[in-house]
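In this section we walk through a basic example: taking a raw amino acid sequence and producing a predicted 3D structure, encoded as C-alpha cells. The instruction is simple. Fold the sequence below.
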Amino acid sequence: MRPFTMFANASVTECERLRGLLRGRWRPAARAVMVLLSLHGLSPAQIAVLLEYDPATVRCSIGRLNI
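The resulting C-alpha cell sequence is shown next.
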C-alpha cells in the first residue's frame, strides 16, 4: 500500500477512485481508516465528509473497532 502522504495532493479523479475502493468489499479497510483518522485527531464529522459517509456510520465504526 502506498504511504498516505502520496495522496495529499492527489487529483480529484484519484480521490474519487480511492473513495470507490473503500466501499463494497473494501469496507473493512474503510472502517480501519476511520479509526486511524480518529486516532490522529479528526472528528467523526470531519471523517464523514472526507470519506463521504454518514457521521453516525463513522461513530459506529470507530466504536466497533476502537479498542
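Looking at the output, two observations stand out. The chain has a mean pLDDT of 80. DSSP finds four helices and no strands in the chain. In the next section we compare this with other chains.
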